[in-house]
Amino acid sequence: MGRPPCCDIVGIKKGPWTHEEDLILTSYIKQHGSGNWRSVPTYTGLLRCSKSCRLRWTNYLRPEIKRGKFTEAEEKMIISLQSVLGNKWAAIASYLPQRTDNDIKNYWNTHLKKKLDMFHSVLHPPHHLGSSSSSSDSSTSFQFFKREHNHLIHDSSTLNKFISTVTSTPSSTTYAFSTENVSRLLKGWMKTSPDTLKLKTTQTKEKLLPDGNDNYNNNSGNNKLDDGKILAKKIKIEEICKGDDDRISKEAAAYNFESILTFENISSCWEKNSSLDSTTVHGSTSATLEESQTTTTTTTTTPINDKVDSISESGHQGLVEDDQNQPLFCLLEKWLLDHEATGQVLEEDHRQKSLQYFDQI
DNA sequence: AAAAGGATCAACCGCCACTAC
DNA sequence: AGTAGTGGCGGTTGATCCTTT
Prior knowledge:
By secondary structure, the protein is mainly alpha-helical. The protein is 62% helix and 0% strand.
């Protein structure tokens, strides 16, 4: 026999919560704490199911929740974390304790996804320019982007920084995809202990890598999310990189290649995009931008080989010799290190491990 | 001023892993 | 060991608010 039913389905109330209901729930949680949600409707007399009570508390009533607009720093964090973790909103929310997974998910769907789409459309204009419909679309995209980021347009360094934020992460895999750092990254939101994770990681490697199959059976472990799949992908990429130094340098090339996304290039692209002149769009600058876009907007689901091949085919490997000598890690990684240093996210020993890891690279 | 369309976000739904029985 | 309820998650919906025409 299983547990008794949590609540009676008949007579359950749905829809928006009233102020009175909020007060009742809040006072109950303050007295008894949040935990046994099954008993909440019974003890409070609320005509809500336990699930609804839990959601209301975790997504709205919790005192530590920060409401209002997301800051630029939060925005960057979400973009970077999303590129590494995917749509694991709870995991992402664990790095933003004052925001709920629901808020982050909503913000992503309503703001950030749109911004990234706009970047993509601006940097990668359609080939069929000239028709009236495409002119309307690209113009709208441009206007939206211009309205949203007017401050960036007038500040090239900020623009470059922002572009680097939204475009660089997927290509910088070498550090973030290391087993140790992925497990470190996932620490705090996985129920699995580090030791278990380490063991699982080893097992995953053994299971996946010999035959190259990344269909890790998530059901075999106690990992609640798809962290097994995430790990599997990243471990596989890491192994590929380890086994082929040339690929690592090409990954580095992919990263450095993004530095060509200067303000002038973006402006030029916009102008050409809005002018709807198909001949100029296929000119050198736009062509370069398109090629760079091939490398920079590639998600983690795209095989590295494709990305690397696109770089080779573009014939821009000379850009690897970028004298800026940028480090081979992305914003997220920089952020992790920064925050480790201030103790905001990770412990000091983790920072030391990260630094040791960088030394090894 | 009003209608239409878009944006926002709280809340719901369905699924899954965990776990009490 | 098997069953079924619970908690938690990501995806989706729909009511409301805002902006544009």
